[in-house]
Design a protein that fits this description.
Layout lengths: L8 H24 L3 H33 L6 H34 L5 H27 L30 H5 L21
Helix pairs in contact: 1-2, 1-4, 2-3, 3-4
């Protein structure tokens, strides 16, 4: 089997976010549509996106667990990664419960309840928060990133809004977290102080 560098989690997470987000959108829009034929189509789209998204979420969580236990990290990135993991497990649990509820609702009622749509909207907020924390782990702390690009070549001699050019920003400044002023050193994390 071919290897995905650094792991499979980023591949699946985009499907999870897209499907579950669209499900929430379809459920919300469904409540504002009056025409029965369009309501039925939106309801079908909303339910299938929810069910497929939850399936992808389970696979994403499994891939995320392997990533959590295998990517190189330091102490600040470990904290960010752990926070993302905790939010992801809560979000996954909520979507599994909502999916189970949706199957019961799909079989028993013709109209989607306002309560269900509200819970879907709140589930989307959880999903967005989890996704944001995952992006922080990657883009702020460099988790799962093989290397930073070298700043060279044509088109890179321009100034940025803050007045700095590419050449005046070091690699450590580019990945330094704003909330944590200490320098991040990748691959220096001691695993003896905690377990995954």
């Amino acid at each position: 089997m071919f290897e995905v560098i650094p792991n499979w989690h980023p591949l699946f997470v985009h499907f999870t976010i897209a499907l579950l987000s669209m499900s929430a959108v379809f459920f919300v829009v469904l409540k504002g549509v009056k025409k029965d034929s369009i309501q039925e189509q939106l309801k079908t789209l909303a339910y299938w996106n929810l069910w497929l998204g939850t399936g992808f979420a389970i696979v994403t969580a499994i891939a995320g667990w392997f990533a959590y236990n295998s990517v190189a990290h330091d102490t600040p990135s470990h904290e960010a990664m752990t926070e993302h993991r905790n939010w992801a497990l809560i979000t996954l649990s909520v979507f599994i419960v909502v999916s189970y509820w949706s199957i019961k609702e799909y079989k028993s009622v013709t109209r989607v309840s306002v309560t269900f749509v509200f819970v879907m909207a709140m589930s989307f907020v959880l999903l967005a928060s989890t996704g944001w924390r995952g992006s922080e782990a990657v883009y702020r702390y460099g988790l799962g990133v093989m290397s930073l690009p070298k700043v060279e070549g044509e088109g890179h001699a321009h100034e940025h809004a803050d007045g700095q050019s590419h050449t005046s920003i070091s690699a450590t400044q580019a990945i330094k977290p704003t909330a944590n002023k200490e320098r991040i050193q990748v691959n220096t994390h001691d695993h003896s102080g905690h377990e995954h």
